[in-house]
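step: validate -> pass
step: tokenize input -> pass
step: predict -> running
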Amino acid sequence: MRIIGVIPARFASSRFPGKPLVLINGVPMLKRTFTQALGAKSLDALIVATDSEEIECYCHSQAIPVMMTSPTHLTGTDRVAEVATRLPADLYINIQGDEPLIQPQSIEEVIAEFASYGDSYMAYNLYKSADSKEAQSPHTIKVITNAQDELLYMSRALIPHSKQGKEVMYKKQVCVYGFSPQALKIFARHKKTYNESYEDIEILRFLELGFKVKMKETQYSSISVDTPSDVARVKEALRTASSKPNFGGGVNRYTLTRQKSESKGDSLSTSDSNLPENLAYRKDIYLERLDDALTPKILESRKDCSVCARSGGNGGLAHIADTQVLPRKTCNKTMERVA
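step: predict -> pass
step: emit ->
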């Protein structure tokens, strides 16, 4: 079974413009999400899907596989659906780009559910228990399931409501989704449904179209960055994690590393001939575990990005603060708004 992880990333967020490239302790959030997701060993490949030239430029500078998708997409799942038309796989994992602490184990859980139930469900997702304070936030999506852990509804409203005033055990969504190619085709064929358009929760589209969604409870922690204030929460979690061996199952930190070859020794593979277009680096080239910190490596970009090419290739990537890169053509574009 071939499994591709896709990280949708949109630069022009209405609530938080430039969010994917906001720096968290000197490292852009998108890179943190990407490196965390690489810890999921079942993924055959991992790619960023965006419509932003700024994000494309940054990904190329960091040797992160990226695919430019349509600027008309309204949801991240629409971007995943476009990737599915160009890169064949049996399962696509939608990993939200604003989850810099996403646990690789949670990705593995979604994959395991698909392996167990296959096409019995149109989509797969996770939930976790939430306290009443956390549940109050409209940014926390509350989940209602049946006895079989099938999704009944999701809402930004405080559900379920206790008429008697009893204490409620809330469930919150963990934003890792699993979709088959057929599920993504169905999703992309339909416009936003009634409740989806009000709640702004894309997985409701499947429910409203009459399909079943399988949920699974997870114990792994994450923090979704919806507003600038959430960045402080992530920094605090990282500070706490640095003094502990584990955080919600372990904050796995990775860095790009050189691929070892018997014939060439420890050298970076630079041949693209056996890899799909737009997927210049396979996930299995990347990694060795680091126990101390997320350290950017200096790598040469596989391809020239359109932003860099149009800029003339002069100067350095000074707009990505605290990150050293060595693309073939460097980018002059400024990003002070996210630094």
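step: describe -> The longest strand covers residues 170-179.
step: cleanup -> pass
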